[in-house]
């Protein structure tokens, strides 16, 4: 009886030792898995932070480019406006000069009415002046219409550029939201996997 009891004790001790070894191995494996998952998570977090900083830098650079472009366009519009004012003043002065010249011609025509040759010369100068005025008026009107068309085209281009920037910003926001959702899913999978691995060895001990 004592011998059988001793043998059972030895057998139980061996089983207990094997069970403890399985538990120890399982704990070591679980710890290694958790360490690897923690390291993977930290690497993903670091990569996400790097990407976030890159996107922030890109956004700051885009804002700076946009601000510089707006300042350039504003300066360009201001220059065009000042140039149009200058041209308008020159046109007024030109009209005044031509009016004075016409008045002078009329005065000369009145004073030289007695001379047929002088009268024809004055009339010819008046006719030529009117013709030049008409041609000049047509050319200035065409230039003004071209300027209006160019400004409309520039406004349409600016609207299109703003729409593209807004679309790109929306796409970046969606991309960031998808990245965050993916990170949350990976975190959830990591917690679930850790619990499953911890419970597995315990079942083996009971067997």
From TrEMBL:
Amino acid composition bias (Basic and acidic residues), ranges on this chain: 37-97
Record keyword Metal-binding present: no
Keyword NAD: no
Protein name: Flagellar associated protein
Polar residues bias (residue ranges): 170-183
Stretches for region Disordered: 1-121, 170-207
Annotated source species: Monoraphidium neglectum
UniProtKB keywords: Cell projection, Cilium, Flagellum
């Amino acid at each position: 009886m004592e011998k059988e009891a001793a043998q059972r004790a030895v057998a139980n001790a061996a089983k207990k030792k094997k069970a403890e070894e399985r538990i120890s191995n399982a704990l070591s494996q679980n710890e290694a898995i958790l360490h690897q998952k923690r390291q993977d998570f930290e690497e993903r977090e670091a990569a996400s932070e790097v990407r976030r900083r890159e996107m922030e830098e890109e956004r700051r650079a885009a804002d700076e480019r946009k601000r510089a472009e707006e300042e350039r366009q504003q300066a360009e519009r201001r220059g065009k406006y000042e140039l149009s004012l200058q041209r308008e003043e020159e046109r007024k002065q030109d009209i005044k000069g031509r009016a004075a010249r016409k008045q002078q011609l009329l005065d000369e025509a009145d004073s030289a009415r007695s001379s047929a040759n002088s009268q024809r010369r004055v009339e010819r100068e008046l006719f030529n002046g009117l013709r030049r005025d008409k041609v000049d008026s047509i050319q200035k009107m065409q230039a003004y219409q071209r300027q209006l068309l160019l400004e409309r085209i520039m406004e349409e281009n600016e609207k299109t550029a703003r729409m593209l920037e807004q679309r790109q910003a929306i796409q970046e926001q969606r991309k960031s939201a998808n990245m965050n959702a993916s990170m949350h899913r990976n975190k959830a999978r990591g917690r679930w996997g850790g619990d499953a691995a911890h419970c597995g060895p315990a079942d083996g001990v009971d067997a």
